[in-house]
Specification:
The complex is a heterotrimer of chains A (about 260), B (about 190) and C (about 350). Chain A has about 260 residues and is α/β, with parallel strands linked by helices. Helices cover about 40% and strands about 15% of the residues of chain A. The model of chain A has no long low-confidence stretch (mean pLDDT about 95). The model of chain C has no long low-confidence stretch (mean pLDDT about 95). The chains are: A alpha/beta (about 260), B alpha/beta (about 190), C alpha/beta (about 350).
Chain lengths: ~260, ~190, ~350
């Protein structure tokens, strides 16, 4: 059923041009929808819809290419950075980005993201960390917190049995290749605004040909966390932020200069 | 003409290089050629082989099982290849490194002090060229000048090395021709030159 | 263009890729095919083409996937263990109908096996190899010239059918040197309006192998198999040697078929009427031609470098009332002409009907 759209004099909030009118498969309260919208807004604002390429991955965001109104393709679990590497190298004028979850990027695809960063590939990665495997039903992710419940750590994640959560930004910023690495969150409106700024800077880094850019976005998964959406936002702030501090982890000088341009403008 | 030549030696002795030279030279002379090098995980020290088939007709098998000529640069290649040589075939043994004597009397064997001769020329590492020269003296599958021409290309810009290689090739060739010619070195079944 | 050069098989593959207009190569070192990667590392970049040594065969095949999706002629080369790692990506490419060339210079296996030549990946390569319902075109060269020619043909067929094509070679072919004729380069590449090139002036392109609703997927698989049917109609290739009066037919592909050529000569010299049937496509397999042969010949001797994989296809083709025997080596060692000759003699010395 579709609701009649009432008529207003001025539209203040509308669907970005780069976002399709396509039914979302995401659960209520999920953060992926917000991140998708931020990407679409950034692509619109930078005027790169005709050059953007969504390299989707495996997980809840498997369908990403259906949500965006630009070229997109599927990639095997964890391999999106390899696919994006090839697309960018074959067509340097395109603006590919990978959209990956924590299982995809920080477990099965660790080698691919590490080496894409080490090579300093000139594409952008949006890494959505919700500390759980969503699509498969709530198993432990590489970023699941210690003590946190999952369907495969029902007594809470114990390091002796299941090891420690991976801090992706900290790990990747140790490499020489990346130009820009930041961690943001979408658990409250002010955080969403900062996340958008980071995503925009990441794309601008690519457009300027400065090298690998990656933004990790902390995002709630109320269904698998077994919380109401609002409680999930609160849980994220309370438990995830201490483990995964927000901020910039790598900003090479040329990116800092880019950022300054924006601040002046 | 149809020759099946197997070259054997330690990795690092330049067996694959002379196999390549032989194949390139035969190819440029207009023959059909198959050059099948052995390859291994080890780079130096293990035994390597190179099968070079030269023919006027299209060549089938990539590998040689009954060679018409063999070069044994080290003991392992002699013990492996001696029995396989076709009756009436040629065997060139590197006397400097292979102490064993050949038992077969139905083949023509030459014992060349390849490393010693190379050392006399000032560089032990051209023993492969000495032995290639020796092989050409008993098995003229290609002209020595064809080998020199190929070397000129492969070693372009390395004049010193090229000159040394040519000298070693000539030394092996001349030594073998000279020793083959001396009547006391020939046995009834074939030549056993030492 | 008839000037010949002496070339190693692996180099011929690399040069074949260049001539075919390969725009992107991704590879990970593994013996016995490293010369392909090394050669292309010198040849590709200067020519404005993409070359990348990857962190693994997983990355390599997924980069091939990306480059193919981007509309480029793309290739990777590997050897058996690497080919196993690439199966996931190949399945995705088959599912997404992406054209690409995968060179497998087979070596001994299973496991790490060794670096000698072998043909133990026959089932894996001709039956699909990865998960799900699909097939790959498999071209099987037997000379250095065919290493070049089949690599070029592989690109052509990949684009024609939007399907991955395997050049199924072996370690011995990779290393051997033979004189070959250099082919003229391909100058015109096909248009790929479906490719990921940016949604400029057109609707967006999507490349995937996924349907959220299970009921939407079977039609996609059906379409794939309609395509494979066309491939089986149009692309069967094989070569015959001395078959007109042969009562014993050797069936062999790849390097071992060269030993078989010599074995045929040796047998004929002894008055034994032997011929060779050599599939040059092992998918699509020349079943019909072999079935036809079985009307005149009673003995089929399969020579292969595995414990018996090609022999299954031969049995399927000739039926159960024909004698089918195996002469083989496996695990990375060659099969020689005299061994095939001995097997020929043994087979014809046995009374018919066993």
């Amino acid at each position: 059923m579709r609701l009649e759209t009432p008529e207003f004099d001025t539209v203040l909030y509308h669907r970005p041009e780069s976002l399709e009118d396509y039914p979302l498969h995401l659960c209520p309260g999920c953060g992926h929808g917000i991140v998708h919208r931020l990407i679409a807004e950034v692509v619109d604002e930078l005027g790169i819809r005709e050059r953007a390429v969504c390299v989707a991955s495996i997980g809840c965001m498997v369908n990403s290419y259906h949500y965006f109104k630009f070229d997109g393709l599927e990639s095997a679990h964890g391999r999106a950075p390899a696919v994006a590497t090839a697309i960018k190298r074959c067509h340097p004028h395109l603006v590919p980005f990978t959209y990956q979850g924590d299982g995809d990027l920080a477990a099965i695809g660790t080698a691919e993201i590490v080496h894409a960063c080490a090579r300093g590939e000139n594409f952008t990665t949006i890494f959505v960390n919700n500390a759980i495997y969503g699509m498969t039903g709530g198993q432990m992710a590489p970023t699941t917190l210690l003590g946190m419940y999952s369907t495969s750590t029902t007594g809470g994640r114990e390091p002796a049995r299941s090891g420690y959560p991976i801090r992706v930004c900290e790990m990747l910023s140790a490499l020489d290749g990346p130009a820009y690495i930041a961690r943001e969150s979408v658990h409250k409106p002010s955080a969403v605004r900062k996340a958008k700024q980071a995503i925009k800077l990441a794309f601008r880094t690519q457009l300027a040909g400065l090298g690998m850019s990656l933004v990790e976005v902390l995002s709630p998964c109320p269904v698998n966390w077994r919380l109401e959406p609002v409680d999930a936002m609160k849980w994220l702030a309370e438990h995830m932020l201490p483990q995964y501090p927000l901020g910039e982890y790598k900003v090479i000088e040329a990116v800092a200069a880019l950022k300054k341009e924006t601040d002046h403008a | 003409m149809h020759e099946e030549i197997t070259l054997g030696g330690f990795g690092g002795q330049g067996v694959l290089f002379i196999g390549r030279l032989l194949a390139e030279a035969a190819f440029r002379e207009g023959h059909e050629v198959v050059c099948m090098p052995s390859y291994g995980a080890e780079k130096r020290g293990g035994t390597v082989w190179c099968d070079v088939t030269v023919s006027e007709e299209a060549i089938g098998a990539l590998f040689i099982t009954r060679p018409t000529a063999v070069v044994a640069m080290n003991p392992a290649s002699l013990s492996k290849l001696e029995a396989a040589i076709k009756p009436g075939g040629q065997l060139v043994v590197n006397r400097s490194l292979v102490p064993d004597k050949v038992k077969r009397a139905d083949i023509c064997t030459i014992y060349v002090p390849a490393n010693d001769m190379a050392a006399e020329l000032g560089d032990d590492s051209v023993s492969n060229m000495v032995i290639l020269g020796s092989l050409l003296a008993v098995c003229p599958v290609v002209a020595a000048s064809s080998i020199t021409a190929v070397m000129g290309e492969l070693l372009a810009g390395k004049q010193e090395r090229l000159a040394l290689n040519e000298k070693a090739l000539g030394a092996g060739y001349d030594w073998t021709k000279k020793n083959l010619a001396s009547p006391e070195s020939k046995s009834k079944e074939g030549a056993h030159v030492q | 263009m008839t000037e010949k050069t002496l070339m190693a098989g692996n180099i011929a593959i690399a040069e074949g890729a260049i001539l075919a207009g390969c725009q992107a190569y991704f590879g990970y070192p593994i013996t016995p095919q490293n010369e392909i990667l090394e050669h292309l590392s010198k040849r590709m970049p200067g020519d404005g083409r993409v070359f990348l040594q990857t962190e693994s065969e997983l990355a390599a095949i997924n980069m091939v996937y990306g480059a193919a999706a981007a509309g480029c002629r793309a290739m990777t080369s590997t050897s058996s263990p690497g080919f196993s790692l690439e199966q996931e990506g190949i399945s995705y490419m088959a599912g997404a109908e992406l054209p690409a060339v995968i060179v497998n210079v087979m070596r001994g296996g299973p496991g790490l096996g060794n670096i000698g030549g072998a043909q133990g990946d026959y089932f894996q390569s001709t039956r699909g190899g990865g998960h799900g319902d699909y097939r790959l075109i498999n071209l099987a060269p037997a000379s250095v010239q065919e290493m070049m020619d089949f690599t070029m043909l592989a690109f052509e067929l990949a684009d024609k059918y939007r399907n991955p094509v395997v050049v199924l070679a072996d370690g011995f072919l990779g290393q051997v040197m033979e004189p070959i004729v250099r082919r003229p380069p391909v100058t015109e590449l096909p248009d790929k309006p479906w490719a990921i090139t940016g949604a400029r002036g057109r609707a967006k392109n999507v490349i995937n192998s996924f349907e959220m609703n299970p009921a939407d997927f079977p039609p996609r698989v059906r379409l794939l198999f309609q395509k494979y049917e066309a491939i089986c109609q149009n692309e069967v290739r094989f070569e015959s040697l001395e078959l007109s009066d042969a009562t014993l037919v050797i069936v062999a592909y790849g390097s071992v078929s060269r030993s078989a050529v010599t074995a045929v000569k040796m047998a004929r010299r002894e008055g034994i009427p032997v011929g060779l049937f050599r599939p040059t496509t092992v998918y699509p397999f020349p079943y019909k031609a072999l079935t036809e042969l079985a009307r005149h010949a009673d003995n089929f001797l399969v020579a292969e470098l595995s414990f018996g994989q090609l022999i299954d296809d031969v049995r399927l083709a000739v039926g159960h009332d024909k004698r089918v025997a195996l002469v083989n080596r496996y695990g990375g060692v060659p099969l020689h002409a005299d061994e095939i000759l001995a097997a020929i003699k043994e087979m014809i010395s046995q009374p018919v009907g066993r």
